[in-house]
């Protein structure tokens, strides 16, 4: 399986369209979105819902802190708190990132454990105990020195790129 990763869309229709196109270009099986879908602008948010629902079989959706108010039936695909998957020899837990301390127990007894998240809008990498934390940044509103970015994950690990396809991080 090959996944495309995106986070913190915050109503950016162009950002979501970019992720969809990039997923097709890279022949990804699924797109994992790590939360914070909306901006509060009715038209943009409506388009986000329509795009995701139109391609619902392509998405795995994680609930972000800005999505806590959403009912579970906004999307035609499940809005999850997390998603755990084993790829090659690694265990990946995908979450938004606002409640990281709640997710650590899921991976404490696993080797090659990774928590992949968004939330801060900053690309980052750090390890604590046996868990490597990878923040994929934001497709729409980068902070600090980060750029608008997306990620991929497959048997070769996690890679994060800016929207011009320059490699930012590889793990």
Describe the structure.
This protein has 171 residues and is of the alpha/beta class. It has one domain: Metallo-dependent phosphatases (Purple Acid Phosphatase, chain A, domain 2), CATH 3.60.21.10. It contains three helices and twelve strands. It has helices at 13-25, 42-54, 100-103; strands spanning 3-6, 30-33, 59-62, 79-80, 83-87, 90-94, 113-117, 123-128, 131-136, 149-154, 157-162, 167-170. The strands form two sheets. The chain has a seven-stranded mixed beta sheet, with helices on one face. Strand 10 (149-154) and strand 11 (157-162) form a beta hairpin.
Would you summarize the structure shown here?
The protein is α/β, with parallel strands linked by helices and 171 residues long.
Beta strands, count:
12
Helix content: 10-25%
Mean pLDDT: 94
What do we call the CATH homologous superfamily? Answer: Metallo-dependent phosphatases
> Mind telling me which CATH architecture this is?
4-Layer Sandwich
Morphology? globular
- Radius of gyration based on Cα positions: 15 Å
Q: In total, how many domains does the architecture comprise?
A: 1
The fold-level CATH name is Purple Acid Phosphatase, chain A, domain 2
CATH class: Alpha Beta
* Lateral arrangement of strands in the main beta sheet: 4-3-2-1-10-11-12
Question: Which strand-content bin applies to the residues?
Answer: 25-35%
Order of helices and strands: EHEHEEEEHEEEEEE
**Spatial gap, N to C terminus:** 17 Å
Uncertain regions: pLDDT < 50 for 5+ in a row?
Answer: none
Q: Give a short account of the largest sheet.
A: 7 strands, mixed
């Amino acid at each position: 399986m090959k996944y495309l990763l995106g986070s913190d869309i915050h109503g950016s229709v162009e950002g979501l369209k970019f992720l969809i196109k990039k997923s097709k270009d890279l022949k990804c099986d699924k797109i994992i979105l790590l939360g914070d879908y909306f901006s509060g602008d009715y038209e943009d948010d409506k388009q986000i819902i329509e795009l995701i629902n139109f391609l619902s079989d392509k998405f795995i959706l994680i609930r972000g802190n800005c999505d806590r108010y959403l009912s579970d039936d906004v999307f035609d695909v499940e809005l999850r708190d997390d998603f755990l998957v084993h790829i090659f020899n690694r265990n990946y837990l995908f979450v938004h990132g606002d409640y990281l301390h709640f997710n650590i127990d899921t991976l404490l007894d696993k080797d090659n454990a990774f928590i992949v998240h968004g939330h801060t809008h900053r690309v980052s990498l750090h390890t604590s105990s046996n868990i490597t934390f990878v923040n994929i940044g934001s497709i729409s509103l980068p902070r600090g020195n980060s750029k608008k970015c997306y990620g991929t994950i497959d048997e070769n690990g996690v890679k994060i790129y800016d929207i011009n396809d320059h490699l930012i991080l590889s793990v």
